[in-house]
Amino acid sequence: MSNNKLTVVDREGKSRDLEWEPDQTLMEALRDNDLPVLASCGGTASCATCHVFLADEVFDTLGERSEDEIELLVEAEGYRECGSRLSCQLDFTKDLDGVTVTLAPEE
Amino acid sequence: MSAATTEQSATTAELPPYSHDLDWPAGMAPFKVVDDGTQGDPYAHYAWMRDNAPVLRAASPVSDVWFISRYDDVRKAMRAPKVFSSQVVDPVPLTFLTLFDAPNHTRLRQVVAQAFTPKAIAAFEGRVRENAEKYLDPMIAAGGGDAVDEYAIPLSMSTISALLDVPAADFEKMKFWSDETFSYFGRLARNAEGTGTDEHSTFEFFAYLKDTMERLYREENDSVGGHIARMWKEGLLSEKEAKELCAFVFVAGHDTTTILLANAFRVFSEQPELLGRIRQDPADASMFVEELARYRGTVQRASRITTEEVEVAGVTIPAGAIVRLLPAAANRDSSKYPDGETFDIDRTTDGHLGFGHGVHSCLGAPLARLETKVTVEILAAKLGSLTLNTTRPIEYVRGNNLTNSGPEHLHVELESFSA
Predict the structure, then answer these.
(1) What span, in angstroms and rounded, lies between the C-alpha atoms of B198 and A11?
(2) What is the CATH number of the domain that holds B377?
(3) Which of A31, A40, A50, A69 best tests the B interface by mutation, with the highest count of B CBs <10 A?
(4) Option in B106, B358, B365 nearest A107 (CB)
(5) What pLDDT was estimated at residue A89?
(6) A34: which chain B residues are within 8 Å (Cβ-Cβ)?
(7) Which of A16, A82, B110, B250 is most buried, by CB atoms within 10 Å?
(8) Do the Cβ atoms of A40 and B109 come within 8 Å?
(9) Element (H, E) at B68
C-alpha cells in the first residue's frame, strides 16, 4: 500500500507536508517525523500528549472515540467536542490520504 | 467532589486502620513504608492487600503513606495526574522526570523523548546483541554464575552508557555513582534513609557528567548526552537541569533494566520448557517480555500526592496524602488477568502496568523491551538448561530508592544447548 500524504499545522501555525506510512498510527507518523508530539504513554490512550484537531468533515468520518479516549480529551487543553482526537488511536487508512492535522496546544 | 461534600466528609470520613494494626496472616510481617528486608519478593503481601486492604495506610515518621494495589484503582490513578500529582516534593529537588507534573514534565521530557522512540532505539539492536553474547558466553563456559553481576549489570550499563557515550573504562564508577544517586533521590524525594555517602557521591557524579557534556558538545556528539549538552549551551536548560537530566537517564535506565533482565533468568528457571519453545519460535520472545513485565516487573512503587480528597475502593483518601501506587500488585490482580499469580506466556497482557501507564509511562520502555527481548532470544538459542543454584539463595535489592525490587544476586547453573 502506498503512503498517505499528510499536512501538519504546528503550534506556531506553520504547515508542513509529511508521508504517513501504512504501518504507522497517526501519532507515530507525527512523532517519527520529528513533530513535537510527546506521546508520553507510547500509544495506549492513557495520556493526552498526542492530542490533535481534525476538520469537522474528516472527524465525522472517523469511528466513535472510546471511553478512555474521551475521558482524557475532555480534560485536555483546547478540547473540542467535534474535532479533538488522540492521534495514537487513529490507524492508517487510505480514506485519510491528504488530510490536514493541527497539533493541539500543550499543557 | 464539591466543596460541601468535601467539608462534610472531612469530619465524617473514618481513617482506615494502620498496616501494623491489621491482622496479617501468620508469618507475614505488616507491610511497611521502608522495607526492613521482608518485602524483597513482595507478591504474597500484594495478594493479601488486594483482598483485604486495597487501600492500605502505613505509618512512617514523616507522614502516613497510602498504598493502592488493585488493577482498576492503580490504572485510574495513573490516568489522573491532576488528582494524583507526581510533584510530591515541592520545590522539586532534582531534575528527575518522575518528580514533575505538567508543564515542566512536558518541557523536560521533550528534551530526551526523541532519543527513546522505538525507531531511535531500533538502531541499538546490533550493539545490544553483540554485548549480550559477550557477557553470556563466559558464563556458559563456566557452567553458570551470578546473572546480575555477570550479565544484567554489564549489559544494561553498556547500553545506557552508549546513550551518553561514556567510555567502558568508566563503567564501574558510573555504576557506583548511579546507585548512590538513586539512594540520594530516595532520601530527598521518598524519605528513605540514604547511605551516608549518597550526597557526596551524587555531586561527584554530577561533576563527571558536566565534564562529559562539555566533551560531547565539543565533539558535536549525536548521543542523547550530546543533545542535552547542546540544550544547556543554547540556554534552554540550566546547568543544574542538564546534569541532573543526564543522571536521571542513566539511573532510570540502568537499575530498572538490570532487575528485569535478572527476572528473565528466574522465569526460565521456573518454566524451563520455554527455552525450547522460544528456540523453535523466536517470535515468541516478545510475548515472554510482555508477560515478564506484567508478572515480575521492576518498578513496585509510583509515588503521588493527592491534590483533593478522593475515594478509592470505598476508602476516602484525604487531600495532600502521600500515595504509593503499586503497579506490580495491580498486574497480578486476577480480576484483570485470570490466574494472575501464574506466568503464562500465552495470555493476553494488554493493558499491563509493567512500564507504567499515563503521562509518566516509562520513557525507556522501548530500550528495556529491546534488551529483554534480545536476552530472552539468546538464552533460548544458547541454553539447554537454566536452573537456580540451590546452594545460593536469591538475594533481593533492599530498596534505598523505595521504588524498585528484585534480585540483587541470582546465581544460576547453565548448560549449553546441543542439538
Answers:
(1) 42
(2) 1.10.630.10
(3) A40
(4) B106
(5) 98
(6) 114
(7) B250
(8) yes
(9) strand B65-68
- B298: cell is 521492576
Q: Domain-by-domain residue ranges, chain A?
A: 5-103
Q: How far is CA B265 from CA A61, B296, B354, B377, B385, in A?
A: 48, 11, 17, 12, 11
Contact between B77 and B322 (Cβ < 8 Å): no
Place of cell 524451563: B272
pLDDT at B3: 42
* Three cell numbers, residue B171: 563503567
Determine whether the interchain pair B357/A44 forms a contact, defined as Cβ–Cβ distance below 8 Å: yes
Distance of alpha carbon B272 from alpha carbon B415, whole angstroms: 12
Fold of A5-103: Ubiquitin-like (UB roll) (3.10.20)
Is B102 part of the contact surface with chain A (CB cutoff 8 Å)?
A: yes
Tell me how close the Cα of A101 comes to any Cα of chain B, in angstroms.
Answer: 20
The set of cell numbers assigned to B195 is: 547511605
CB atoms within 10 A of CB B120: 16
CB atoms B82 and A38 under 8 Å: no
What's the domain range around B31?
Answer: 3-416
- Give the closest-approach CA distance of A38 to chain B in angstroms: 6
A54-68, A80-94, B106-120, B352-366: least confident range: B106-120
Q: Do A40 and B102 touch (CB under 8 A)?
A: no
Please tell me the pTM assigned to this model. Answer: 0.94
pLDDT for position B403: 81
pLDDT score of B10 more than 80: no
* Domain count within chain B: 1
Set of chain A residues whose Cβ sits within 8 Å of the Cβ of B103? 106-107
> Per the structure block, which three cell numbers stand in for B218?
565539543
Tens digits of per-residue pLDDT, B215-273?
A: 999 999 988 899 999 999 999 999 999 999 999 998 888 889 999 999 999 999 999 99
Quickly count: other Cβ atoms within 10 Å of residue B85's Cβ.
18
Residue B294 contacts A where some CB pair is shorter than 8 Å:
no
- Give the nearest chain B residue to A32 (CA atoms): B119
ipTM: 0.93
